[in-house]
Amino acid sequence: xxxxxxxxxxxxxxxxxxxxxxxxxxxxxxxxxxxxxxxxxxxxxxxxxxxxxxxxxxxxxxxxxxxxxxxxxxxxxxxxxxx
Length: 83
Description:
The protein has helices at 16-28, 46-60, and strands at 4-9, 33-38, 64-69, 72-77. It is α+β, with helices and mostly antiparallel strands. Strands 1-2-4-3 form a 4-stranded mixed sheet, with helices on one face. A hairpin with a 2-residue loop joins β3 and β4 (72-77). The chain is globular, with a radius of gyration of 12 Å.
């Protein structure tokens, strides 16, 4: 059974504090999946959501993958690095 938590990405966009918070959630709570709701104030189009997902994935590293459904980003942590 995987644990999932949720957070929102608002009008401030991707800040260093937001990215560090994501990293701490994966480490501290042993979450396997985090769902990020990209609010309307943080995006103009679907391309913005894709850009955010790529930036978050680059920050976290290669043990993480993402999937975009609508205006939500699902981050998943794996045991080994993905190629």
